[in-house]
Amino acid sequence: MQQSSGRIQKRIIEFMIFHRNSTCLLHIEPNEDRNLVTNKAITASSNKENEHRYKLLFGLLFSMRSFVKQVSPPNCTDGLKSFSTPAYKVHYEEFLNGLRFVLITVPMKKDLGDEMRKIFENFYTTMISKNVFTNTDEQIKNEIFIDMVNNYLITLNKIIQ
After folding, report:
1. For 71-130, how does the pLDDT look when each residue is reduced to its tens digit (9 = 90+)?
2. Which residues are within 8 A (CB) of 78 and not within 5 positions of it... i.e. 6 or more apart?
3. Which helix (H) or strand (E) holds 44?
């Protein structure tokens, strides 16, 4: 467990969910103070910088995914899972329904694809997909879902190296 001055070092910086049409449905920065956690994607239309950032990130992931597919052997089923720079690592997971989960972390060796699949299976499917009152094409406003994801990411921050 990494600590600096009594606090846990923040290893997970951001978590995003993109719709298949490139819309950012969820953007949170994990925080132990639940009152500070909001879905930044909801205000993206009024914050042009975030909206532009989402389009750039989605385009980058789309292009890299295509590139990886082109240079991979014909029978390779694994696609783009992550990429790193000296400053950060982007973990990427795409699901059959077209959703794309993105985790931005500090550089690390561990791949967090399994953790994103757990978020999808344990939280998204139960609280968003199966909820008849939720439109899965719109930004996620379900505060319980956001809290559960935030808590899970905080727990991951404490255990990942």
Report:
1. 878 777 678 899 999 999 999 999 999 999 999 999 988 899 999 999 999 999 999 999
2. 72
3. none
Q: Are 92 and 101 in contact (CB under 8 A)?
A: yes
Query: Cβ atoms within 10 A of the Cβ of 137, count?
Result: 10
Nearest to 68 by CA among 78, 55, 59, 58: 78
Category of 100 on φ-ψ map: left (φ > 0), alpha (ψ -120 to 50) or beta: beta
Give residue 128's identity as a one-letter amino acid code.
I
pTM, 2 dp: 0.88
Contacts of 76 (CB under 8 A, 6+ apart): none
Q: Give the total residue count for the chain.
A: 161
